[in-house]
Write a structure and sequence with these properties.
The protein contains 5 helices and no strands. It has helices spanning 2-25, 32-50, 59-89, 98-106, 108-130. It has one domain (2-130). It is mainly alpha-helical. The radius of gyration is 17 Å and the shape is flat. Helix 1 (2-25) packs antiparallel against helix 2 and helix 3 runs antiparallel to helix 4 (98-106).
């Protein structure tokens, strides 16, 4: 089981890295891809860090906190990716203006709350399946 999960994480991380490098070279002004990449990176991080916690007693709390962390991490990682891509290309007119990056950061509390509710729903579903 763990060997299969480790292979999945490794393959997902390699695919994510390749897709990220391809996206960095493309002229893109939409916030969809940085947010999607931020979500995937946050999800991979919490899958790597909290995978063992789900077998213990506080699995419900761990799922809620992981969901909240994924939501907050999505906004922070997306803003960081936007900033890096803007600096990487170095155009006169940036790919992502500062207002757009700040708008993504302003959504962090809402995405964190949405992630916490998704984690709560997952915890309730897992508890229901156990009974």
């Amino acid at each position: 089981m763990w060997a299969t999960l480790c292979r999945f994480r490794r393959a997902a991380a390699l695919f994510f890295g390749a897709a990220l490098l391809i996206w960095m070279g493309v002229e893109d002004h939409s916030a969809v891809m940085p947010v999607l990449f931020g979500f995937i990176l946050s999800g991979l991080f919490f899958l790597h860090r909290d995978g063992r916690l789900l077998k213990q007693r506080g699995a419900e709390a761990a799922l809620i906190l992981a969901g909240s962390g994924i939501g907050l991490g999505t906004a922070l990682t997306a803003a960081l990716l936007m900033l890096v891509k803007t600096g990487w290309h170095g155009h006169l007119f940036p790919d992502f203006p500062p207002g757009m990056i700040l708008d993504v950061l302003a959504r962090a509390p809402w995405w964190g709350a949405a992630g916490a509710f998704a984690g709560l729903g997952t915890a309730l579903l897992a508890r229901w399946r156990r009974t």
